[in-house]
Amino acid sequence: MSAKEALDLASKDDLDLVKIAPQAKPPVCKIMDYGKYKFEQAKREKEARKNQKIIETKEVRLSLNIDTHDFNTKLNNAIKFLKHGDKVKVSIRFRGREMGHSEFGYNLMNRFSEACEEFAMVSKPAKLEGRNMVMFLAPKPVK
Fold this sequence. Notes:
Blueprint: H1 3-12, E1 16-21, E2 28-32, H2 34-51, E3 57-62, H3 68-84, E4 87-93, H4 102-115, E5 120-129, E6 132-139
Parallel strand pairs: 3-4
Antiparallel strand pairs: 1-2, 4-6, 5-6
């Protein structure tokens, strides 16, 4: 039908004439309540955003000469973050002469990852970047 006829039909029912495919020959239009359509679309998007889980990255900093109790405290914090569903960045900052003993850092990172392997998997293994050694842990998927 012609555009004028469609517009008259839409205005008779207090609805809007909305172009669905304007580039088609002839253009495809739909008669609908556009305000209601936009409201329902916004409502669906809001509901979809509500159901999304935003994964944050939490950081746990270790030092090369960390004691057992401090290590366990940092480990418990990391496990708490992982149970909450967040990723954990484990980092060690080397100071002064510690740079010459990066193998101790790798050992500490391995010990940390083994201690929390029940809750996490290593997404990025330990890597030395300048004076920092960084490792990323991701929570294990729930079955």
